[in-house]
Specification:
Mean pLDDT: 94
Order of helices and strands: HEEEHEHEHEHEHHEHEHHEH
CATH architecture: Alpha-Beta Barrel
Number of helices: 11
Strand order of the largest sheet: 1-4-5-6-7-8-9-10
Number of strands: 10
Structural class: alpha/beta
CATH topology: TIM Barrel
Distance between the termini: 41 Å
């Protein structure tokens, strides 16, 4: 029996060549940013139990590893430090040490490798004993303006060390504006700002805490500065403010739970939009794969396509190495 149908969309899905012909998007190596953990405690690459195939790298081995990643098409890296506990304090003052690990890492990579782009995380949580992204007042509340002043100084140090993009991930008010002003004062006009503009107070960050060694066994409540997962209008406001303050790239974090926010950003701002597929997104796919419930590579690719389809043209992902080998 044949129906008298005018429209049969399956006509162009029956043939694999036609399916390729009408494919609406392709993942590219240029879409990918690989987050990298560097450690001054590690002597060899250290496994992170909650993040299979991800390691903390000692600096003396990281440069050669960056070259290997370049060989498979990855050219942009976001660097996150694990520093010694003895260097942490309530003020996170190690971020102002020009010889600190995160700055030495950029110096060494840029001295040894051409055609590589580095993203420097600008936040205090790797450096504070309490694990918050800012300085606490006597009541345990993060002080916005005092924190922003320190972050702006850290951004200048990062630019001087060789970071092409500084990425404030703290969600303090006004930090993009002050960072831009301080960079320009120091003749760093060509250093871009990739702002974590809509960073949600998410339950998906746990494995990241393991990776940078915050020492926190339970999640820290950061809801006084990170966004409520229920709030879209508030996320829109944050994106608009960072755009007005001079951000060069707007970031949404996490990625897949917030595809609607990515879509809004793409439709409303004519600058690049980034999304961060965070540690918990990575680990949940891996955990299901290890249980035999889901296929790792198929789910990783599908997740990447959903993030790109929503509107992100830059994707921070721990799957970058695996994806780069597949595409």
């Amino acid at each position: 029996m044949n129906f008298n149908l005018t429209h049969r969309p399956r006509r162009i899905r029956n043939n694999p060549v036609l399916r390729s012909l009408v494919k609406e998007q392709e993942l590219s190596h240029n879409d990918l940013v690989l987050p990298v953990f560097v450690s001054e405690q590690a002597q060899v690459p250290e496994k992170i139990d909650s993040m299979p195939e991800i390691f903390r790298w000692p600096l003396n081995l990281l440069v050669s590893k960056i070259k290997e990643w370049q060989d498979i098409g990855i050219n942009t890296f976001a660097i996150f430090p694990q520093i010694q506990a003895s260097k942490k304090n309530p003020l996170g003052s190690e971020i102002l040490n020009s010889d600190s690990l995160v700055y030495k890492t950029a110096y060494e990579i840029k001295a040894a490798i051409d055609n590589v782009a580095l993203v420097g995380d600008i936040a205090l949580d790797p450096y504070t004993t309490h694990g918050h992204d800012g300085i606490l007042d006597c009541n345990g509340v993060v002080e916005n303006d005092r924190t922003v002043e320190i972050l702006a100084q850290g951004a200048v140090l990062a630019a001087g060390a060789g970071y092409d993009l500084v990425a404030p991930s703290d969600m303090m008010d006004g930090r993009v504006k002050l960072i831009r002003e301080e960079l320009d004062k120091q003749n760093k006009q060509n250093t871009g700002i990739l702002s974590y503009s809509a960073k949600f107070s998410s339950a998906y960050y746990g494995p990241f805490r393991d990776a940078i060694g915050t020492g926190q066994k339970t999640a820290i409540d950061k809801s006084c500065y990170q966004l409520d997962p229920a709030n879209l209008r508030e996320a829109k406001r944050e994106l608009e403010l960072d755009f007005e303050e001079g951000a060069d790239i707007l970031m949404i974090k996490p990625a897949e739970p917030y595809l609607d926010v990515i879509k809004y950003a793409r439709e409303n701002f004519n600058i690049p939009i980034a999304a961060y597929q965070v540690s918990g997104e990575y680990s949940r796919i891996w955990a299901s794969h290890l249980q035999g419930w889901l296929d790792l590579e198929s789910c990783a690719l599908e997740s990447m396509h959903s993030i790109k389809r929503a509107g992100a043209n830059i994707i921070f992902t721990y799957f970058a190495e695996r994806i780069a080998k597949l595409i």
